[in-house]
Amino acid sequence: MKLQRKNRLRATALGALAVSGALVLTACGSDDNSNADANGGGKSSTAASDITCDGAEGQLLASGSSAQKNAMDLWVKNYMAACSGVEVNYNSSSSGEGIVAFNQGTVGFAGSDSALKPEEVEESKKICKTGQGINLPMVGGPVAIGFHLEGVDSLVLDAPTLAKIFDTKITKWNDKAIADLNKGVELPDKPIQPFHRSEDSGTTQNLGKYLSAAAPDAWKYEAEKKWPAPGGQAASGSSGVASQVKAVDGSIGYFELSYAASQDITTVDIETGSGTPVKATSENASKAIAAAKVVGTGKDLALELDYATKAEGAYPIVLVTYEVVCDTGNKADTLGTVKSFLTYASSEDGQKVLTDAGYAPIPAEINAKVRETVAGLS
């Protein structure tokens, strides 16, 4: 069982690498740049049919969410291979740092796992001049709960139990609450070592939204980007939390699914009350994201997710990463590249690579609105 699960995770990771490599090699394999101008602003290569480089030039800086790093890496490699002379540099830091950078005017767009707050929108007007910051949902996926417990290769947890673990109210792996959810599993009398993000994180906020919605009696904290509960250990970025879980026996943490796949970390199945515990997969996350509603106004496409869903096969701990841009008032020297790059990211080809990397594409109806909004950025 353990071998099968790990093989599935390894296959997902290898699939993502294979896609990345194939995209880069295919795009680089064409030396026909006759349609490109000196700034790389010509037509795309035949290998990347959904990439149009018109208007793109120079360097584009972006930063933010580490949850979307693996998706962004794929997009950037494919895009830069198609658009010669254009450089896209995405700094994977955190949602909080990305929004700060955006509102300071140092990046063309930011990645955030949670929508802008009203005060952040107000602050963005200083940078956007004639407009304001808006949220464009671009990447979806499950927030995996990864664990490392020698001798245990599968684990089921529900929201109340998970809340008490991360709130350090449940401190041993053989606690009755965990044992009741895992009949027949030999759980060791070993301390639980929970890991959380050290910096402001949209992934933290999404986990908090899930715990607040699905276990309100056990999780009393506001869903904020800063980790709210006492105890536990902190690590930087999704990669840092995943690395700690990978290394420490008895540990548990949260991060985007691709980090579990790439580091071969076993993930928790979530008991939602639907009758069958739900696995953290792109397909199961898509079932939850598909029910999302657009609650943003105007060009803003912020979504409302149902974290307490009990729909069959719907994985409830999900996040949607937004690319935060100005609706109007974007900087003239980066506007063309921002529009070109985000047009590719939201295209059919751009969304297609997400599943192979452990993410969930944005539902088609919502994504159509994203593409329309990107086309109208000014």
Automatic annotation (TrEMBL):
The keyword Lipid biosynthesis does not apply. InterPro entries: ABC_phos-bd_PstS (IPR005673), PBP_domain (IPR024370), Phosphate-bind_PstS (IPR050962). GO terms for cellular component: ATP-binding cassette (ABC) transporter complex. CDD domains: PBP2_PstS. The keyword Transferase does not apply. This is Phosphate-binding protein. The lineage of its organism: Bacteria, Bacillati, Actinomycetota, Actinomycetes, Kitasatosporales. It comes from the Bacteria.
